Amino acid sequence: MKAVYEILALIIILTTLFLVSCNKTEVEYANFPDPQTCPGIPEVDYGGIIYPTVKIGEQCWLAKSLNIGTMIPHDAHATDNNIIEKHCYNDDTANCSANGGYYQWDELMQYTKNEGTQGICPQGWHIPTNKELAKLFIYIGCNQSYISEGGKNSTGMNLLRSGIVGSFGSAFWEKRGYYWTSKELSDSESLNFLIGVYAYDLTTNPIHKKNACSVRCIKDE
Q1: Boundaries of domain holding 13
Q2: Are the C-beta atoms of 213 and 102 separated by less than 8 Å?
Q3: Looking at the domain assignment, is residue 179 inside a domain?
Q4: Are strands 70-71 and 85-86 parallel, antiparallel or unpaired?
Q5: How many CB atoms are located within 10 Å of the residue 175 CB?
Q6: What's the pLDDT tens digit per position in 131-157?
Q7: C-alpha span between 72 and 212 (Å, rounded)
Q8: Which phi-psi region, left, alpha or beta, contains residue 143 (left: φ > 0; alpha: ψ -120 to 50)?
Q9: Same domain, yes or no, for 101 and 159?
Q10: Which of 20, 49, 54, 171 is the most exposed place for a label (fewest CB within 10 A)?
């Protein structure tokens, strides 16, 4: 019985430490500098679309989800045919114009598995790596609302809850946002980061490469 009480006490202590840590993060990171563009690069013109930039800590991101390429139906797979192929929510190009395109991982990476590759990003930019994602998470603490639309959005990154597209159709519009990284986890899965799953925490998880997700490009160092 004593051992049970000791375990319960340890759980309570760890839970308290976790809550204190998150609350401390709220205080520590609540006052970001005013949103600022990347030095010397206020915007990027790519494929006829203007993408504003945003500097977050030492990183430089596009402040708008990528929307490049030709739409294919949700139940069609992109192929290595020298044409950038995207999906749009509910197969409606207006949704791509509003919230960006959705890309299967191989198409996004342009059929390489090298983490940090340019992929379909503009010249001088690339698909974020696992390490770069970790730096972003550390900078904003445990609060996803610092980078997401509808929350504090203190950094100006403006991540959208734009959902996901797959062979099943489109889902989670205005509920969750799914964003690719260039980190391959297996032959069938890559690392994705999400907003909207929990109230504050950013979440990472493996997701099948055939799903079509959003992407935010990050500038080469």
Answers
A1: 1-31
A2: yes
A3: yes
A4: parallel
A5: 13
A6: 999 999 999 886 888 999 877 889 999
A7: 11
A8: beta
A9: yes
A10: 20
